[in-house]
Design a protein that fits this description.
Structural class: alpha+beta
Helix content: 55-70%
Number of strands: 5
Order of helices and strands: HHEEHHEHEEHHH
Number of helices: 8
Distance between the termini: 73 Å
Length: 237
């Protein structure tokens, strides 16, 4: 029985996800870059791809890209505050542009895109969207009408796997950040306990009140205390 390109792609991305689960990767950008590169290979008609991150305040950035065109198009979206990637992320799950020169939904974006790039076809898939940020996986081609129903089907598969992998990576980053914060807070508590002869509960209460009074996150305050103590040790030496 023959195996379709989509099945091959799904198998490869699933293997990558298993690798993330078994051996967490610190460099999120590297993994997203690999997923984006693989996506171009398996979405019919695609020549370029990128992942767009947008914030509710209007900021847009490119998390991964196979070349310069996705980055340029994201810059245009931020400049014009409109575009298919933003619509896919905030409003719809899939957006397709068949011909940039004849598209009427985002006139300013399309006009700049035609002037600044050779891209004429776009298909964008929502990866995630929460109250503050969103992510979209986008495929591009220089030819008009490059994406058909098969492209949409394959893109949905890629987007689904990419969203899953990204979620795993974000959770891993959050866990690592929490561990790092716990460690630095523990160091600061230990320094306060030793310096002022107080117990762990009292040291944490001091940190908490200092954080509240200075409107500084607890982990940031702990960093300041630890770094100041280390600086004094260097001077004393």
């Amino acid at each position: 029985m023959s195996v379709s390109p989509q099945q091959v792609m799904a198998s490869q991305i699933s293997e990558l996800i298993r690798g993330i689960q078994e051996h967490p990767v610190a460099d999120v950008d590297t993994v997203l870059g690999e997923l984006t590169e693989n996506g171009v290979k398996y979405v019919p008609g695609a020549r370029h791809a990128g992942i767009t991150i947008a914030v509710r305040d209007g900021k847009v950035r490119t998390a991964a890209a196979t070349g310069e065109y996705p980055k340029v198009l994201d810059e245009i979206q931020q400049r014009r505050a409109e575009g298919p990637c933003l619509s896919a992320a905030w409003e719809q799950h899939v957006i397709r542009i068949n011909d940039m020169e004849n598209e009427s939904r985002w006139p300013a974006y399309c006009r700049d895109a035609v002037e600044e790039t050779p891209i004429r076809s776009v298909i964008a898939f929502q990866l995630y969207a929460d109250k503050q940020t969103m992510g979209a996986l986008n495929f591009y081609a220089e030819q008009s009408g490059a994406f058909d129903a098969e492209s949409v089907e394959a893109g949905l598969v890629v987007a689904t796997h990419t969203a899953l992998a990204w979620n795993l990576l974000r959770r891993d980053e959050q866990f690592r950040s929490a561990l790092a914060s716990r460690d630095i807070i523990g160091q600061a508590k230990g320094m306060l306990m030793e310096r002022y002869r107080i117990d762990a509960v009292q040291a944490f209460e001091v940190l908490k009140r200092l954080s509240q009074n200075s409107n500084t996150p607890l982990a940031d305050l702990a960093h300041e205390i630890v770094n100041s103590a280390r600086a004094r040790d260097v001077v004393d030496d």
